[in-house]
Amino acid sequence: MLAAGASTRFGRSKMLVPCDGKPLVRTVAAAAQAATPERVLVVTGRDAADVAAACGDHADLTVFNSHYKRGIGTSIARGVAALSPDVTGVIITLADQVLVDAAHLRALIRAWAGDANTNVATRCNDNLGPPALFGRNALPRLAELDADSGGQAILRDAAYSRREVRFDAAALDIDTPEDLESLVKSRT
Question: Are 91 and 108 in contact (CB under 8 A)?
């Protein structure tokens, strides 16, 4: 799970902002843990110690990305570098996508079915993106990402088989205080 952004649009560390009575990062970490028990890695950046602590017992490992200000690609590469060499696939989910739940993450795993050359993207409206599951064959390319490029090019690369799982709630991520306010209002 990526929780390493600079939160520039939010104005403060959004990972620590409460939503439904708990920090944003804990909500998504709990969903990840429910889908993949004992296999949750969180990449931190801004306020790393506080973000790691906010995960509670929902993260098995946290790693700090010292280059988090350069963009999401550096966080993905840092996370992949911390993985065990026997990993067969990785789900990349964003800690500000608070509506992503364990059921959706499990759907990605079912669609993937353990194929080393298959990647599974979330289809949201007309977009493909995270959460996304990358098979073993894509891991070397993920480890080379830098700056503000995520896994989009890998998801669209015809060298890999791609499957998609629809989940429109993935469209909501919390980038600004107004995004969070809208989410809270929609739940009341």
Answer: yes
Q: Which phi-psi region, left, alpha or beta, contains residue 22 (left: φ > 0; alpha: ψ -120 to 50)?
A: beta
41 forms beta bridges with 61
Q: Which domains occur in the chain, in start order?
A: 2-183 (3.90.550.10)
- Sequence-distant (6+) residues with CB within 8 A of 123 are 164, 165, 166, 167
pLDDT tens digits, 18-74:
888 899 999 999 999 999 977 899 999 999 999 999 999 999 999 999 999 999 999
Residue with tokens 């409460």: 18
Backbone torsions φ then ψ of 46, nearest 5 degrees: -60, 135
Look up tokens 């980038």; give the residue. Answer: 175
Instruction: In whole angstroms, give the CA distance from residue 99 to residue 108.
Output: 15
